[in-house]
Automatic annotation (TrEMBL):
This is histidine kinase. Keywords: Kinase, Transferase, Two-component regulatory system. GO terms for biological process: phosphorelay signal transduction system. Residues 290-470 form the Histidine kinase domain. PANTHER family: HISTIDINE KINASE, SENSOR HISTIDINE KINASE.
Length: 477
């Protein structure tokens, strides 16, 4: 069964076509029916037909997070769906697929046109319009791809700057400590020469060496003290040094106290070696304490550098397989390290991790991009400081990660648009509007998961649900 020319002219889509064009449509199209409750076409299948609704009601659905979600519903006569991109160049159109699932809510009657016939004739009828439409279609695709790459480069630049800053601090500390250590070692050699010159009985030297070893042990277990306790200990140390006629006691006291040495320790040292009370011996011990402290600083600084490099390696996943089983907490922690410079001191980070959560099969580097986008947005929402909470939990066969902030929240009227491409609430130049769109595609398209947001002033929560038994998806997001 087919429609007549007059019936086709009554549809808004075809009302301005010429007589011969309407006759072509009448000759090549057919009227089809579909019962209520069944699919008219399914998302992902090859786009072979162009449909125009004549009677009934249909629902357009998308698969999101493994669930079918209704996007819209219509009973408007003349609504069209299916191979809506049949007008594209033949090689592109032939590879296209249905972008949505269309379900028949009631019994529906549709006019059906074969896409491989309808597409070429539309290009023949409207050549200029086709050039404009193709330019718009491919232009938008290329623009989104280019801006997406730019977004990634900007994020990489920001992360690199932050990592460089984080690396600079411990590296500079190690350089400073090394320079100071060189001076202290030279001073120790000088004091050792004075000791060996005969100023102190050689028989006492073994005792002083043993005290030196004990001083090193004391540095390793130096107690944590409050500023007030440090001041009291330094005052007591100054009084003791002056009572033993040691010059420059105000310079020596902070060094000895910082190394965990106190007056009772020095008193016990005198019982072991009487020469320990002399200025030369005390300065030698001070050099020992200071060199040990400096070596600890160098160790801490280089360990920090190593930790940062390890976090960067974990974040980038450069030495890992693209699809692997990972600990989501390691991914979150490495992202926090990479963003430490941007998070700053005004934002308190709270980790509420469910450590019983099993390993997650995932594209780790791309999930790190999701965490980066969500954490970056959360920090941007709290310009005056606040609390950033990372929470993990298990819900059935899914791992759930929440990124929460105490910012001003997302207004209800735009909440449904935050995952749209190019939509952003940031000022001009501060965002491209692709961060959450990229995150949505990574989570939903590539991991078959789900991402959503709940927001009220003071409590915004982005929720990412990921299957614990996911299979690798084909293609990049």
């Amino acid at each position: 069964m087919a429609l007549t020319v007059d019936e086709l002219r009554g549809l808004f889509l075809f009302q301005h076509l010429e007589e011969h064009q309407l006759r072509w449509l009448a000759e090549h199209g057919t009227v089809e029916t579909s019962p209520a409750g069944g699919p008219v076409l399914s998302e992902g299948e090859e786009a072979t037909c162009f449909f125009v609704l004549l009677e009934g009601t249909v629902a357009l659905c998308r698969t999101i997070g493994g669930e079918r979600v209704e996007i819209s519903r219509t009973d408007h006569r003349g609504s069209y769906f299916g191979a809506t991109q049949a007008y594209l160049e033949a090689d592109v159109a032939s590879k296209s697929a249905y972008q949505m699932t269309v379900e028949a809510i009631t019994d529906v009657v549709m006019y059906q046109l074969p896409a491989d016939e309808f597409g070429p004739v539309v290009r023949e009828w409207f050549p200029m319009a086709m050039h404009l439409l193709e330019g718009l279609f491919f232009g938008m695709q290329n623009t989104q791809r280019a801006v997406g790459q730019r977004e990634r480069l900007l994020a990489l630049g920001a992360l690199s700057a932050g990592l460089t800053h984080e690396l600079n601090n411990p590296a500079a500390a190690a350089v400073r400590a090394t320079a100071a250590l060189r001076e202290r070692v030279a001073g120790m050699r000088h004091k050792l020469a004075m000791l060996a010159s005969g100023a102190i009985d050689p028989a006492t030297l073994p005792g002083l060496v043993r005290l030196q070893e004990k001083a090193v042990e004391q540095v390793a277990k130096a107690p944590e003290r409050t500023p007030m306790q440090v001041n009291d200990a330094e005052d007591e140390m100054v009084d003791w040094l002056e009572s033993h006629e040691v010059s420059g006691s105000w310079d020596l006291a902070p060094i000895l106290v910082a190394g965990g040495l106190d007056v009772p320790w020095l008193e016990s040292a005198l019982t072991v070696c009487a020469s320990a009370g002399t200025e030369t011996a005390l300065r030698w011990l001070a050099y020992t304490v200071e060199t040990e402290t400096l070596m600890n600083e160098i160790f801490d600084a280089t360990t920090r550098v190593s930790t940062l490099v390890g976090a960067a390696k974990q974040y980038s996943q450069l030495d890992r397989a693209p699809f692997q089983v990972v600990d989501v907490h390691e991914l979150l922690d490495s992202t926090l390290v990479m963003l430490a410079g941007k998070i700053g001191r005004d934002v308190e980070v709270v980790k509420d991790y469910d450590r019983a959560l099993p390993p997650l099969p995932a594209y780790a580097a791309e999930l790190n991009q999701v965490w980066t986008n969500l954490i970056d947005n959360a920090v941007a929402a709290m310009p005056g400081g606040g609390t950033l909470t990372l929470r993990t939990a298990r819900e059935g066969d899914r791992a759930v990660v929440q990124v929460c902030d105490t910012g001003s929240g997302i207004p209800a009227e735009i909440r449904d648009r935050v995952f749209e491409p190019f939509f952003t609430t940031k000022d001009v130049g501060e965002g491209t509007g692709l961060g959450l769109d990229i995150s949505w595609r990574i989570v939903v398209k590539k991991h078959h998961g789900d991402i959503s947001v709940e927001s009220v002033p003071g409590d915004t929560r982005f929720r990412v649900a990921l299957p614990l038994t996911a299979q690798p998806a084909e293609g990049a997001p």
